[in-house]
Amino acid sequence: MLEHEGLALLSKDFATRSHIDLYFQRQGITPRIAIEANSISTIVEIVRRGRLATLLPDVIAYEQAGLNSIAIQPPLPQRNAVLLWLSGAYRSAASQAFANLITHRFDVHQESDNF
After folding, report:
1. pLDDT for the residue numbered 115
2. Which residues form the LysR substrate-binding domain (predicted)?
3. Same domain, yes or no: 59 and 99
């Protein structure tokens, strides 16, 4: 079914797009890409106003009122993110607050006690 949908996708300079392209390749799907954009909000608006579909991270998709989110099968492999900084280096109050927000909101594993 996915191979029959016209798609609005992020441009190739996004890591998310590389992840999606690899998924298509592994599934033997040649996507029907109708348009590429370099902004997630632009992609969402294109889908909202037209007849195209898109693939975006689920955290973004679930925040979009008025759009239907459909899980694809098999699902894309999970990606991980890390927050790095130089050990012992100065961190502003804003960067410390951001680290605390991320670690508590998403219940992430901490490799270091330097938070």
Report:
1. 47
2. 2-106
3. no
